[in-house]
Fold this sequence. Notes:
Elements: H1 12-25, H2 32-48, H3 59-67, H4 82-87
Amino acid sequence: MQLSNETVNIGIKTLKEHYERTFCTRNRHETFGDTLDEQFVKAFIYKHQNVKFDHKIDKRDIEEIFKNLPNGKAIGTSGVSNEMLKYVDNKFLYY
Length: 95
């Protein structure tokens, strides 16, 4: 990419509308993938609703997963960043 001294004349209102259309309005609509994911989750829950899982989750496994999370990734819908999981005192996760 080359640096340029050219300027772009875009009004703030136009820029705001573009931002909202790109990152807000468009993302409000379900995609086919969202529908498939939702159907998969519902089917899984229905199939396993009376199944008792006896798999033990080791505290060290969780700590290792948190330790290896990459920094600088976007925060998801939970509002929790990888850095929050990595660097907070996670003692409350084990109770």
